[in-house]
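Following up on my earlier thread - several people asked me to post the actual chain instead of describing it. Fair enough. Here it is, all 325 residues.
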Amino acid sequence: MKRSAALALAALALSTAGAAAQTSPYYDAWRDAELELGARYIYGQPSYKAKVKDFDGTPISRLGFTGIDSHSGEIFGRINHKRLDIFLRGSFGFGGYFGGKLRDDDFAPGLGTISSTNSKLSNTFVTDVTVDIGWTPVVLPGTGLRFGPFAGFLYRNDVFTARGVTCNPDDVGGALCGAPGTQPVAPSTKVIKNDVRWTLPRVGLEASMPITEDIGVRVEGSYLIPGLEGFRNEDSHYLRQSELGPVPNFVDTSTRASGFTLQGVIDYRIGERTSIGIGARRIVLDSGTAKAVAGAGLPADQQSPARAGGVFQTTQGFLQLKVSY
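Reply from S.P.:
Thanks for posting it. Predicted structure:
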């Protein structure tokens, strides 16, 4: 008898809890939310350029990373609230750079190019993180077009490692490096590493619209806002540590970093909740004038009498798989 009473009370409690959950305002709010999870394969051809000048504007050095192929994977998630038209999304990507070279040109007033070298890139990789919140109401009900703003941040870490040195023609007859084609440093020797980090808030606009019952398109663009320490470059010269101190020998930072991103994707639904897509992405980042601060092993108040500016840009295409819940 006691056992039967206990079972009856337990059943009543569960029934009451279930009814309360269904009438709870928290339950009603989340009932209108849709979760999207997905993954992307991304291919790109990035390039990175940097110029270093004296305070009077005289060029000192120019670096160029070119001929690179990038392959990376990205996971992403998005919560859409159907009634409030707001969304929260995030992504994390990681990949590697393959091939490519670093061209390093050094200049001196009145002499022109005093050294020009090429080095092969190896052990290079990229990490991407984005987080955004936005509002995209239906603006044309007859077409299903949604359009609205979003805000968030972008974090990107690019690591370029160069090995070996091959001399190029210069304006001083190879006095510093050697004749063109000379390899004063073995191809396997690590010479330079640039660890570049971008951390930038952003604001943008997003639009999406169904084309057919199974096909939809989504495009977005964002402006990356300067003001914070949005750019940081740890510059390591492995063969000059006796002169410059332990690596990283120099650290460049900038509060003037800015840029923009563009992205478009076409989705094709292959199931009730599953879709595949193809898209393209463009990212341009500019450090502005970056200040070279003290490097490792140097006095804390010592600064390099130079200013540096860097530009990173990449065009990427991607394939994606997405599941909705």
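The first strand starts at residue 33 and ends at 44. That should answer part of your original question.
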